[in-house]
Amino acid sequence: MNTVIDAHNISKVYNPKTIPVHAVNNVHLHLERGEFTALVGPSGSGKTTLLNIIGGLDAPTEGVIMVNGVDITRMRPNDLINFRLNNIGFVFQAFNLIPVLTARENVEFIMLLQKRHKKEREQRVRELMEAVGLSDKLDSRPAQLSGGQQQRVAVARALASKPQFVLADEPTANLDSHSASTLLDIMERLNREEGITFLFSTHDQRVIERARRVITLVDGRIAEDSAPTPTAH
After folding, report:
1. Which pLDDT value is given to residue 230?
2. How would you write 13-24 as a 3-class SS string?
3. How far is CA 110 from CA 8, 87, 187, in A?
4. I want to staple 207 with a disulfide (CB 3.0 to 4.6 A). Which of 27, 146, 202, 212 is the partner?
5. 95, 130 contact by CB (below 8 A)
6. What pLDDT, on the 0 to 100 scale, is given for residue 233?
């Protein structure tokens, strides 16, 4: 396996000059290619902040983030945008689909930014929408889709750029049990068959039970890092 993420001494402090809040506190994190990992902990433990720092959406107060051997903490803003575009897929709790675009156009959008050829874009959209079980919803807009379907489109969009890894922030939080199970089946299959690395921030026991590694954050620090205990059926 190859190292995808190597985070050293990551800290994030808000209001450092008044009342400091240590959202993330001296975290070390190492992820290998093909991992399926859940980042868990109570509200306010720093999960989303750490996920955003790893994804280059937020900058750490201290520390270094290496992604595929590249130090993203020292990148200029434009270089970081391009790096995220070509290396990292994001799945958000609120789906974040563009409402005026169809499912096809939402998935294709990131490839337009990458300046991919039209034929390549069309083929990739078809493959991904089939992979998430929505090949019959290509021309539907988000408002015409259920929450579970919208999140599956969001997963297809996250994978459109052929990223090295996917960061998913509470991806099942707004989904019913069936939709969550379907989404997790899809992500597990993509992880297993295509070797895509997934890192989840989650409270959801359904995600935690599927993860092959569970990292627990408490007060911005890693309190535990271990494989999950299988549940009895």
Report:
1. 56
2. EECCCCCCEEEE
3. 30, 12, 19
4. 202
5. no
6. 43
Q: What's the CA gap between 97 and 44, in Å, rounded?
A: 26
The residue type of 39 is L
Low-confidence ranges of the chain (pLDDT < 70): 1, 227-233
Number of H helices, E strands in the chain: 7, 10
- Letter for the amino acid at 91? V
Cα R_g (the chain), whole angstroms:
18
Structure tokens at 28: 């070390």
Q: Residue 61 has what DSSP assignment?
A: S
H-state helical runs in the chain:
47-54, 77-87, 103-113, 118-131, 147-160, 177-194, 205-210
CA distance 73 to 8: 11
In 10 A of CB 231, how many CB atoms?
Answer: 8
Quick one: which of 170, 171, 101, 166 has its CA closest to 139? 101
Alpha-carbon distances of 168 from 80, 116, 176, 217, rounded to whole Å: 19, 24, 17, 16
Pairing of strands 197-201, 165-169: parallel
